Amino acid sequence: DEIPTVVGIFSAFGLVFSVSLFAWICCQRKSSKSNKTPPYKFVHVLKGVDIYPENLNSKKKFGADDKNEAKNKSAMPKNSLHLDLEKRDLNGNFPKTTTKMQSSPDLENSSPKHFAERKKDSVSPDSLKSITSLSSEEKQEKLGTLFFSLEYNFEKKAFVVNIKEARGLPAMDEQSMTSDPYIKMTILPEKKHKVKTRVLRKTLDPAFDETFTFYGIPYSQIQDLTLHFMVLSFDRFSRDDVIGEVLIPLAGIELSQGRLLMDREIIKRNVRKSSGRGELLVSLCYQSTTNTLTVVVLKARHLPKSDVSGLSDPYVKVNLYHAKKRISKKKTHVKKCTPNAVFNELFVFDIPCEGLDDISIEFLVLDSDRGSRNEVIGRLTLGSSAEGTGGEHWKEICEYPRRQIAKWHMLCDG
């Protein structure tokens, strides 16, 4: 009789201890969740799916009191942007918030006519002037219309851009007579803040419905910003095709009353107005004894702007060809925000044949772009069949081996 009694007593104590331990763990988890502050990131909402492309440690830029904010303003540049993350619920979704709308219809059910009416009220005189100053050729060539919305959340100091859709895009694939469109958006004048939508396959009327939220932007700074939308078509086998662009200066656009629905005609990409693609200074030396070619990329000057955002971030890619087949490639470091870059980088190539008759070398000056494929600013080819200064330079290094010969060359279109 004593053994069952002892077992029962121990079982009761064990049950009480387990229940107490479980309750204590639950309380600890609840208190830790209530005290936890979310990380501060850039928020991208894609049809209910949360995507976080960056992790930026900028807690102090959001949620600070007025005193801390005044201190940070002196240390922070005027045009610097800081990205952050909204709070999510326990299921990982964003809580739905009701925002004050300037128009009664929702963004989902808005018609093109409604977008056009809102545009008349919200466009600044400068932007209207730029639209009406398009040439007759650009007006005849229809590139479609981009629909989007702008909003500013004063409570969270967040600037919100929703890329809704594009309509009437031209077909970039001649075989299927369709396109694979996507959109890159840049907040100017800071070139580094770039986002892009997903690629939608085989459509001329893509419905993106993607929301990009930028935290830590003061409302007073909104007037100094410009939105640049680049509409592209994805190409699996080569560089993506540029359909057109939309440039939206935010000066004069009022966002204090709630979400603003807008639409703009997509125009042809602005062609850089410059006398050339710039110049590149290179030095070459052929060592006949070791059968090697030494290439020094020295300088670049007068490089054109890569886009409307400002200066390029150039670097040089060097390709060595033997009988029109690339056998080696190298590249320099990136030089930030300059049209006159100094590289001073040396590369040594092993030549697989005797002499330089079947050898040619290609220099590609590119603009570094973290958000998409790097754009070719200019190209230079040196070889026996090259024309102009490229052919003359090649002839000299063949006639005078073991001598380092440097020359400036004009870059041609990429």
UniProtKB/TrEMBL annotation:
Signal peptide positions on this chain: none
Alphabetical keyword list: Calcium, Cytoplasmic vesicle, Membrane, Metal-binding, Phosphoprotein, Repeat, Transmembrane, Transmembrane helix
Keyword Transmembrane helix: yes
Major place of residence: membrane
This protein's record includes keyword Disulfide bond: no
Biased composition (Polar residues): 94-112
Basic and acidic residues bias spans: 62-72, 81-90, 114-123
One cellular-component annotation, GO: axon
Top-rank taxon: Eukaryota
Membrane topology type: Single-pass membrane protein
Family: Belongs to the synaptotagmin family.
UniProt protein name: SYT4 protein
Organism: Mystacornis crossleyi
